Amino acid sequence: MRGLATGLRVTLQAMTRRAVTGQYPDVVPALPPRSRGVIALLEENCTVCMLCARECPDWCIYIDSHKDVIPAREEGARDRTRNVLDRFAIDFALCMYCGICVEVCPFDALFWSPEFEYAELDISDLTHERDRLREWMHTVPPPPALDPGAAEPKELAAARKAVAGPAAAPTGDPARRTVSRGGPAGRRPRTPPPEPAS
Ligand code: SF4
Ligand code: SF4
Questions:
Q1: Is the pTM of this model over 0.85?
Q2: Atom 6 of ligand 1, residue of closest alpha carbon
Q3: Considering only the top CATH level, what class is 29-139?
Q4: Would you kindly state where each structural domain of the chain is located, as residue ranges?
C-alpha cells in the first residue's frame, strides 16, 4: 500500500512538472562552450608525429605525409628532414568523441568546437578532410580566463617579446615563432613546436 502511494505521488509530480522539451531546430540550444561537437585542426601546429592516430581507439584518424630534405645551412653540416602533411582526416561516422586525440596531441594542433550541425545524408561525407577540419577552428571558443593572480603563461610572455622586437628580447631563439589560434584578438597565443629533425 505504501509503495502504491509513493508511485502515485511520483506520477502526480511528473504530470504537473513543466515540460522541458527542446524546440530544436527552431530554438538552438545554448550549449556550454567546451561541448564536444566537432574536432578542429590547426595545421600549423601539427608536426605529423602520428600520436593522435596511434592513440585513437576507433582508428578513425587518417594521416598521410612525406619527408622533405632541408639542405644544411653550413658546409660540413648534415641535411635535415622535415615531415610534410599530405592528408589529415577524421571520420566522424566512427569517432566516439572520447577526446583522446585532443588530449594526447603534444603540440596543441587539435581542439574541440561546440558545433554539432554537420549531419549528412551520405555517411562518407562525415569524413572531414584537413580543409574542413581547419574551417572548424573559427568556431573554437577562446580558452577560459586565467584565475585572478595566476602566473602569466610563458607563451604570452614569448609572444609579447616577439611583438616588441629583438631589442626587447635579447635572449631566446630568434627563429621561434608564435601562432595564435585563428579568430578574434585576445585569444591566448600558442607556441608551435620546433620542426622535428632526423
Ligand atoms: S575523439 Fe576519440 S574516437 Fe574521435 S578521433 Fe579523437 S581519439 Fe578518435
Ligand atoms: S598528435 Fe597533434 S601533432 Fe601529432 S599528428 Fe596528431 S594533430 Fe599532428
A1: no
A2: 101
A3: alpha beta
A4: 29-139
